[in-house]
Design a protein that fits this description.
By secondary structure, this protein is of the alpha+beta class. Helices cover 48% and strands 18% of the residues. Helix 4 packs across helix 12, helix 5 packs across helix 7 and helix 8 crosses helix 9. It is globular and about 90 Å long. The mean pLDDT is 96. The structure holds (R)-mevalonate.
Length: 437
């Protein structure tokens, strides 16, 4: 076992790789050359990527693709998607095409405010705390004047601070619940800077109040941080059409609509299905979030919490058939940015925004919600008809061929052969072995 290393981040990249090679890679020159193979020959571009995180050794590629033909509120988009799973972009493209001549996707912003909390302890009388809070509120708001100057000029900033009594949940637990409008910025740094300043002001002002001496001490801040749960920053997307438009054969159309709605209702009631159902939605959402340099962990955490808002984890989408009309929609919280963070740094993120015709944050929310809805439509469509594996394995065929080092000719023959045959790992291996023998 190697000894712990100190001062690692101060080493040069070459020294870090040497250290890794010595302690974890048995000086394996192949491993080192893999790391180096992924360096970008453009030194400036490589430096940019190196600076995104600490201790960068190399780059990690994921495919960047596009799903065209997305008609959203009458505008035609090609969605940039970054994802490793073979069938996701194909499924998104299929869903986009399916809805293209049926009116496309319609979306609506349901809210844009974000929130953060100053969490603190106070064990005295609630009335004392309440009257202190009311007296100090203007100073709390004033303390972030400098931080929010630019945001305010653009029409955003802090909207409100509320004192929340959470002592029923935890003894002495109170919060300053702060709401913000951060416009086109995701706003994490802005919100956290505001919260930390508000927290300092709150504590400093409290320490000046003699009344707290008889109240078991001043309020004591535990921590201040934005919340990734943003149910007030929400978007909905929907598709609808006459049931008869779902399939040229009227009986099939009705059967498909019924089975589809049933599948969504199962995900509304059964958490085990809901998790997988929502995972499929996140296939589309995360792929666009990654392409546009947004924080997919924040989005994932917020969306899954929202899926549990009614007391059990359930589907983020809903479907119905009424008056011979099929409707399918999604309603999700999304805190996204189109300025700040990686958006102005990563060349491919900049390109993704260009592809999307430079959306603002609200437009991006709508596009991302559509990506989730489309992905879910494609998954359920397969699940209630052919099953998922047919399309999935067709797309996965190339990965299996690459695993067995198939050459160009072998790949062509395999693709042709598996047009009519079921793809499985063993069937592909056998096919290639037969070709080679
Ligand atoms: C696979 O990545 C996603 C699906 O499992 C989603 C679903 O089951 O709805 C196909």
């Amino acid at each position: 076992m190697p000894n712990p290393v100190s001062g690692f981040s101060k080493k040069t990249k070459a020294e870090k790789i040497d250290w890794l090679a010595t302690h974890y890679l048995d000086e394996d020159s192949d491993a080192i050359s893999i790391l180096k193979k992924y360096w970008n020959p453009d030194g400036k571009l490589q430096d940019l990527h190196d600076d995104f995180i600490e201790n960068t050794l190399t780059n990690y590629y994921l495919p960047f693709g596009i799903a065209p033909n997305f008609l959203i509120n009458g505008n035609l988009y090609a969605l940039p998607m970054v994802i490793e799973e073979s069938s996701v972009v194909a499924a998104a493209s299929n869903a986009a095409k399916f809805w293209l001549n049926k009116g496309g996707f319609h979306t609506k912003i349901l809210g844009t405010t974000k929130n953060g909390q100053v969490y603190f302890n106070f064990f005295g009388k609630k009335e004392t705390l309440q009257s202190f809070f009311e007296s100090v509120l203007p100073r709390l708001k004033g303390s972030i004047e400098d931080i929010e100057k630019n945001m305010k000029k653009r029409g955003g900033g802090l909207l409100d601070i509320e004192l929340k009594d959470s002592t029923e949940k935890l003894n002495g637990f109170y919060q300053l619940h702060c709401t913000f409008e951060t416009l086109d910025a995701m706003g994490a740094n802005f919100i956290n800077s505001c919260l930390e300043t508000i927290a300092r002001t709150f504590e400093t002002e409290a320490q000046k109040q003699p009344i707290f001496e008889n109240e078991g001490g001043c309020p004591e801040v535990v921590m201040s941080i934005l919340s990734n749960y943003v149910p007030e920053c929400r978007v909905q997307a929907e598709v609808s059409c006459p049931v008869s438009d779902l399939d040229p054969n009227p009986e099939n159309a009705q059967e498909f609509a019924d089975r589809f709605v049933r599948a969504v209702n199962i995900a509304q009631t059964e958490p085990r299905r809901a998790v997988t159902h929502n995972k499929g939605i996140m296939n589309g959402i995360d792929a666009v979030i990654l392409a546009t340099g947004n924080d997919f962990r924040a989005v994932e955490a917020g969306i899954h919490a929202y899926a549990s808002k009614d007391g059990h984890y359930k589907s983020l989408t809903h479907a119905s058939v009424e008056d011979n009309t099929f409707r399918f929609g999604i309603d999700i919280p999304l805190a996204l940015g189109t300025v700040g963070g990686l958006t102005s740094l990563h060349p491919l993120v900049k390109l993704a925004f260009k592809i999307l015709q430079k959306p603002n944050a609200q437009e991006l929310m709508q596009i991302v919600a559509v990506a989730g809805l489309a992905q879910n439509f494609a998954a359920i469509k397969s699940l209630v008809t052919t099953g998922i594996q047919k399309g999935h394995m067709k797309m996965h065929l190339m990965n299996i061929l690459n695993q067995v080092n198939a050459n160009m000719q072998e790949k062509e023959k395999a693709v042709d052969h598996f047009k009519e045959q079921t793809v499985s790992h063993s069937a592909v291996v056998e096919f290639i072995e037969n070709l080679r023998s």
